[in-house]
Write a structure and sequence with these properties.
By secondary structure, this protein is of the alpha/beta class. It has ten helices and eleven strands. The radius of gyration is 20 Å and the shape is globular.
Length: 311
């Protein structure tokens, strides 16, 4: 099972809604949503689609970043109004075992996921007690191989143990991607089961670093992943060339899209995300930076789904 960790912003949620409506990710993909906006309109809309299409997702109840970051009850209250078969509780662990215990007890939660960094000490008795609780069914650890003692302990719990990785190599400027050749992105889908994990997780083609908003870019980049002949996931960064100023973003998109569409057609790469990109390019329509991000996210999830469903 693949657990993409996404901030619950507009275009991330649009990508997940479209995938749920297509009906091909259910059973293979289970998103983890970290809400970073106080407004819950987009999240409510996504939840309605998930319910209709029987798509499950985890909801992080104490987001680490965003407008409502921290150990609070905002999203605990939100969860009480959602279908418990659709949204499943998740918590960031950061020396806050008391908060998590209290939340589980006060809101009668079960089947919870715990997300933590690999710097948790194997001698942290609060953590050890928490993960042993029957209400915690899944544990998601970033790069767990860096903490052998923790890794060994968690394997022995016989719970849904998931590894989390940050694969996307963010650059200081979008134009820096112009000189980066295609490269290997991920192999966890090939090896996670052999290494004792029941699932794998990453931030798709986004960085784990949280940024809210942004300025008009000098360069437009379309990040597309694909399966190579060995079923490794590789990534190419299709970058505009006229990057001297912030003018003419539409033209920059056309330059990047030309490269991406040409590559996909020459290499017979297609799915609903790539087809959407091709339509924008053929119609000479600039959809906006948010939609470009949505296409990249959706394509990556479809690539993983393709492998998992055909293996």
């Amino acid at each position: 099972m693949y657990y993409p960790l996404l901030r619950a912003r507009q275009f991330e949620l649009i990508a997940l809604r479209e995938l749920a409506n297509e009906g091909i990710t259910q059973g293979y993909i289970m998103p983890i949503l970290e809400p970073v906006k106080e407004s819950q309109n987009n999240l409510n809309l996504a939840c309605r689609v998930f319910q209709q299409k029987e798509q499950q997702a985890y909801l992080i109840l104490n987001p680490a970043v965003g407008e409502l970051a921290g150990d609070d009850n905002n999203f605990l209250e939100f969860l009480t109004h959602q279908d418990e078969e659709v949204l499943i509780p998740a918590f960031h662990y950061r020396n806050n075992a008391n908060y998590i215990h209290q939340s589980i007890n006060d809101y009668n939660l079960g089947n919870c996921m715990l997300i933590c960094q690999n710097d948790v000490s194997a001698d942290d008795n609060d953590f050890l007690d928490l993960v042993r609780q029957p209400e915690i069914s899944s544990i998601n650890v970033e790069d767990p191989g860096r903490n052998r003692a923790l890794n060994r302990f968690l394997r022995g719990l016989n719970k849904n143990y998931i590894r989390l990785d940050n694969f996307f190599e963010k650059q200081a400027r979008n134009s820096d991607f112009l000189d980066i050749a295609e490269h290997r992105f991920s192999e966890e889908h090939l090896y996670y089961e052999k290494e004792g994990f029941r699932g794998f997780s990453d931030y798709t083609v986004l960085s784990n670093e949280f940024t809210d908003g942004g300025s008009t870019p000098r360069a437009v980049v379309i990040h597309l992943t694909y399966l190579n002949g060995q079923n490794q996931i590789w990534i190419r960064h299709f970058t505009s060339d006229s990057n001297d100023s912030i003018a003419n973003v539409q033209g920059k998109f056309a330059e990047a899209a030309y490269k991406a569409v040409t590559y996909c057609r020459e290499n017979h790469l297609t799915n609903s995300a790539i087809q959407e990109l091709e339509n924008y390019f053929d119609e000479e329509h600039y959809p906006g930076l948010g939609m470009i991000k949505k296409i990249s996210i959706k394509n990556h999830i479809l690539i993983v789904q393709e492998y998992l469903s055909n293996r």
